[in-house]
Amino acid sequence: MRFQTKNVHFQEKLESNEISKTKPIYQTSAFSFQDLDDMENFFQGKKDYLYTRMGNPNTDDLGKGVADLEGAEMGVATSSGISAILAGVLAIAKSGDHIIATEDLYGGTYQLFAHELADFNIDVSFVNFENIDAVEKEIRDETVLLYTESITNPLLRVEDLQRFTELAKKYGLKTMVDNTFATPYLIRPHEYEVDLVVHSATKYIGGHSDLSAGVLTGNRELMEKAKSKVVHLGSNLGPFDGWLATRGLKTLSLRMEKQCRNASVLAEVLRDKPQVKQVFYPKHASDKGNGAIVTIDLADGSDVYEFFRQLDWVKVVPTLAGVETSVTYPVGTSHRPLPEETRERLGVTASMVRISVGIEDEEDIIDVFNKALASAEFK
Ligand SMILES: *Cc1c(COP(=O)(O)O)cnc(C)c1O
What we know:
The protein has helices spanning 3-8, 36-43, 57-70, 81-92, 107-119, 132-138, 161-170, 183-186, 220-233, 239-249, 252-271, 304-309, 340-346, 362-376; strands at residues 74-78, 98-102, 123-127, 143-149, 174-178, 196-200, 214-218, 276-280, 293-298, 315-316, 326-328, 352-356. The chain is α/β, with parallel strands linked by helices and 379 residues long.
């Protein structure tokens, strides 16, 4: 099956005795059995479900749907993007191990790596992945994992995944990529032999800003380890959120196509504005588009607060990827946890605005940003 067909047909046909066209929501904490022999079937691997923390049809559906699109053997859905990242990391790294991560990480991932993993005695170095020699120099005997994002936030650097996996292979290291911004519609890191791909399904997979979820994909061996972490650390996703995310997933192609097109038009328009010092928008992320996030740095002396006040119907939110266009102030939200010197080195400035472009009519999107830019012009 091709991408779009797979995108809506990942669910198995239902049992013949079921009458619902869509998969029902198994809103249950556990599953019941005819008798003890029947229950034994679960432990013999002849039945799939026992207890929702260990597995549920709706959450398994989400894992499978994303794994199909990523081209992976197995996927597991979790309670959030962060818990999916943690499960993936702990499937590879244990106490005493070392990880090298890109320094332009999503803020929440930075928090997890810099502070929480230290308590597990897992050491993380943050390196500029544009400088692959610097990454190589950081590799030590204890290093087990290289971690990056396919399109970074908020400056939208597109990772060179070929070079990334080549370096890992040279030293026998595992690799993990956060594919949240790109989605499998644009980039499929497993095609570059990345070991684990992770998503905040809270973003484009769900697509409607109405749930928190994560998905991790990879080969069966590694994913069985990751799944065991999810079960034993209790970071499973609830059935209803699994069902909602699965519903959202089916329109991933349509949403991405429209959102990427709107974003590329907006990026072009903003490039010509005197009130905009710089536009960040990828050039060659994929042959299907360059993503739906546009980051701008306002001209010196612009009134950022006034810009945010004048955005009319565009909501100011600390997230991205919904069908509605929204904006974020990275320095105030996603990048607040990063040390100021790191932010400065990365070029994440106090005049930076990250726009998550939605599915509205492009003329309306352009109008609203034109108006806000005019209001923000020079204090
Ligand atoms: C939002 C986000 C996360 C964290 O996901 P949650 O669902 O909020 O836990 C991780 N990585 C990226 C790139 C994100 O945008």
